[in-house]
Structures are given as C-alpha cells and as structure tokens.
Request: fold
Amino acid sequence: MNGHGDGDADAADRVDGTEATVDDGATLGEVLGRHTPRSDAGRDARASAADLATRDRDTGPAIRLANVTKRYEGGGGTVTALSDVEFGVAGGEVVAVVGPSGSGKSTMLNLLGLLDDPTEGRVELHGTPVAGRSERERTDVRRETIGFVFQDFHLIPTLSAVENVRLPTAFLPADRTDRAIDLLERVGLGDRLDHTPDELSGGQKQRVAIARSLINEPDVLLADEPTGNLDRETGVSVLEEIRDIAAGGVGVVAVTHDDLVTEYADRTVELVDGVLDDA
Amino acid sequence: MRDRIRRLARLGSRLRGPADGAAAAARVAIPDPVAARVAGAAAALDRRFPAVSLALRNLSRQRLRAGLAALGIVIGVFAVVALGMLGTALQTAATEELGGLGNQVIVSPAAESGEETLDGRDLAAVERAAAGRGTVIPLKSTGGTVSGGGDQTVAQVYGTTNPRPLFGDAPGVPDYHRQGALVGADVAGALDLRVGSQVTIESTTYRVVAVLSPQSSITPLRADSAVILPPDEFAADGPSQVVVQADSGADADAVAREVRDRLNARERRVSVFSLTSVLDQITEFFALLNGFLLAVAGVSLVVAGVSIFNVMLMTVSERRGEIGVLRAVGIHRDQVLRTLLVEATLLGVAGGVVGVVFGTAGVVLVALNTDLPLDAVLVPTNALVALGAFAFGATVALVGGLYPAYRAAWEPPVESLRG
Reply:
C-alpha cells in the first residue's frame, strides 16, 4: 500500500524526525514545511491523509449536510436553528463559517461532527448517509474520521501533552504514542511532550488540541472558534498549522467570529438565523 | 493487505515498546532506575488498563475530596470488621468455655424415687438411647476428704473404669482404670501431689497414677477438684450417675429426650441434666448480638456509600465538559462509564483495605489487652468477616458511583460540551 507499510522504515523515519525538530531557531512555517512530507511518509500503515484526499476527489465532499433542518423544542415553542442548509467540505479545503451568535453555527458543527441528528435532511460521509447508526458506531466513525478543535482547548488537565494527543486511542489495543510524539513535533511542541496543560501557554494548548484531532488521520477537522482564546500572533500560527493540515488533504470547517480565520479560509459562508449564505 | 500491514505495524510498535520506554525515561532525565521502573509500570498500566490509569489520575486531582470519601469507607469497613471480629471472637471464646457442657448429658436417680444409685435397667436404657451418638460412662461418686503430704482437702471422688472421655488424656491416664488414683489439677496443687505420691481417701491409701490437666472448659463434673478411683473401691453397687459424652450438641439433645421417654414415661425415675438448650440459647443470643452490631456497622458503610455517590456526582458535574470531549473524540459511553466506576470503586477498595487493616489491628489490640484469647480472634470465620467487609465496602462504593457515572456517560456530548 503506497510503499510505506513497513514498521522498521516508520521507526527510522520517526527517529529522524525527532532529531530534526530539536532545532529551535526555525520558524513554525519552516518546521512545518520541513516536516510535512516527512510525517506524511511516516504515517501509520493505515489510510493516510493523502489517500483520503484522493478518495475525496473521486467521491465529492468528505462530509455533507444535505438540505438539513434542525429544530429544537424549547419552552417558548419551536426554535429553528438551521433551515434547509446545504453544505459540504471537500478534502484539502478550509471553510470558514461566520455569523452572529445564535445563528446556528454551533448546531451546524454538532451535526457535522455526528454529535447530533438533523430534524430533516441527511448528513453524509463520503456520500453515505450517517443516519440510523447506533451510538456505538457513530462514536467509532467520529473517532476514525473527525477531529475536533475547541475554543477553550478542552485538554484533560491530568494528562501530559502526549497523553492528551493519544487520548482518542486510549482504549484501543494499538499504542499510538509514537504518532502522538510525531504530531507534537510537527506542531512544534517536541520539547513539551511531558508537560501538562497548565504548564503550556494558550497557543501551545491549542496546538496540542490540534495534534489530538489528527491522531486518527481524520478526513475532516472541525474547529469551533479555534482562535477565540488566542492573541493575534498565536492565532496566526495556529491558522498556519490548520492550513498545513488542509494541505495534507483534510477538510477543515472553522466556525468563527474572527476575521483572521476568514483570511486563511478558501471560502467563507455566513449563517444568519439558520440560513446559509455564500459570503 | 491493509489488515496485514496493520498487523505488521502493531507488531512493530510492540517490538518498539521497551525502547520507547527507555527513550521516555531519558527524555525526562530521571537517572534513578527506581523512578524509571515506576514510570515503566505506569506506562504498562496505561496500556493494559487505560480506565484504571485515567481513574487514578482523576482521583489525584482532588486528593482531599477523594481522601474524605475513602475515609467514609475506612470508617464503615473498620466498624464492620471490628464489631464483626469481636462478635465472632466472643462467641468462639464462650463456645470454647462452655464447649464440653453442651455435649454432656448427666442421668442421675430422681430425688422422688428415693434411690441413691441407678440400676441395670436404667443403665441399659441410657446405653440404648446413646447408641451411635456418644460414649456412656457410668460414674460412682461421693464427696470426701483427701489427704496427702501432711495436708488435706475436700474433693469430689468419682469411680469409673473409663476416665479418658470425661477427664482428658493427661500422661498416665489409663484406658481401663483398675488401680491407684487420678487426681485433678487443683487437688494435686493443694496437696503437692505428683505421679507416685501417696494419697489417702477415707482411710485407704492410693498411689497417684496420673495428675489430670487443668480443665479449660466448665463441666458439671468439676474435674479439677476431683479424685478418680476404680469403681470397685466404692461400697455401692450401681453407679450414682451416668454421663453421656455425646458427639455433638444435637446428639446430646436427642439422647436426653430419649432417656426421658424411656425411663420417665410412667413415673419420674431419673433426672436428666443437659445444658444443650441453654447453650443453644447462648449461641442464639450471640448470633443476634452479632447481627445487630453488624447491622449498625453496615449502616455506617451505607452512609459512606452515599458520600461516594455525592462526591462522584460533584466530580462528574465539574468534569462535564471533559467527559463531553472524551465522547466527542471517540471514547465510547461504556468506556467513560467504566473509567468513572473504576474511580468510585478505587475509593472503596482503598478505604476497604485500610479499614480491614485498622479493624483487625484494633481487635488484636483488644485481645492482647483483655482476657479475650487471641486464638478466639484468629479463627477462619474472622478472615471471612474481613473479606466480607472489604467486599461490602468496595461494592457500596461501586453502587454509589453507578448513577453518577451512568448519568455522565450517557449525557449527549452536545449537552456536556455546551458547559
């Protein structure tokens, strides 16, 4: 499979990668630039992001909301959070979703993340409807295909950076520590592997969260206000990181208030009262 | 193909395992090999039991709170162990003390019959009643003054050919008693007698052939202050009483009932003395007391369970967002549930261990400082008490954690992530 299935070659590559990151002077961009091909080759012998990208080009959007409507039954009657939304994100694409609070951005992200079900319409993953799966299957699909990045990072305070990154795989038999270390080195935290979240700055925490979202080579990365708690400079570095991930073939959806995010997006859509507009 | 490669990769990562551990140790620069081994053990725990590893870390977050919750279990288990063990020890000690008593049936002529001795028909009836249930020992008895070594004392004088079942098998006690005297421990002490001494009873002198061991249990025969002679030394023909040493309390009961049926049906010829029913009542009382004490202690454990429930409820509501993240990134509901249950159960297990240790130590201390014999504490039943208390503590904690864990794990992640 793509000529990189051999475990020993992987290991050698990783050791190599480790040495390369100890270089402090390199800017994030340089580090990433140097690392992208390397870590691509070093990926586990499973579907790599590049494979997914190929697959995506064949079958259209990685994830798609097909004429989705979501209504909530509240105390004051029915609230329509999303109204007939048609939206898809392809592999390698960065889409920013903007809109005022209460416009349905979070609802949209929850539906894309398979955390919630639409009232009407379908959620499709590579053209296959997700509806009707058991909670167990949905959880598995979520783990295998979707990465989450949250505004307030949501790292587990008792776990080190490496442990946080491999958390999604904690209950799986295979040890993904190597990949976790790899990813942390890739986001420039090779020297912070054993630090707990309270020993990290906001930007570092968000980069740990990004590494965590990539542990299972997701098809789609969902970011909820990824720069919301970061200063501008740190925000830029995180967004460059996200762009770099997209370059590896991952579809990115970022929900945001931040104009900075839209600058890094391939396209921006606007949600107003649950209705989607191509901005 | 893909599967095979995956298997290969897994094999590879397993092979890399030890090297990784070493690398990790080097990275954090701990020169101490012990610390490295601890880190290695933690990593192994991580891989093998991720729920245990996560639970341990979660508990370490709120040490005081976890400690207090575990303290509740400690107190509860301590109470169960201490009261349970003490109850068992008292019961064991009392049963040992009263032991022989319960299994003996003593048949003697009834006062209203006017007889001093039992005749052959009585003896035959007792023997029939006791067949297969115990040993029948006819005894002649009288009170008398015993002198020896220039001193004298009053003793109970028994006559029997078969002293072993009733008076024990101290060195020198014959299977068939045909000459000389066996003296009880107190008599021997008072007259300074040993094997070979001379003792005079009612103007006849006997050689002491054995000194009986002191009796640990109470018996109606008061063997310590008795002298046992061959029955031929007595003037009377028949035995003045027949003792049945039954195999068990139930047998003693049956023998007593049957002797009454056979001999006292028409007129009251004999008096049948058995303490079995009294002993049963004593045992029953102890069982009731034990049950009551354990129930009180059990209530304290249930209270501890409620405090674990409360602590876990607090914990999961504080960690709501975190649990939402776990669910969002692909940890299954039952895996979250398991982690939280392990957390609650660990509190119970830790509390249980400490409680059992303290409880046992407490009871042993009591035994060492009072008349309660240590042997009565160290009986197999008490191991069961300790094990049971520990299991109960752990279970109470598990049950206390059940609802909070279920609620947290089954909450839709959308809700928990909202904050």
User: Anything to note?
Assistant: Strands of chain B lie at 104-109, 134-148, 151-159, 181-183, 198-201, 204-211, 226-229, 241-246, 270-274. Residues 103-276 of chain B form one domain.
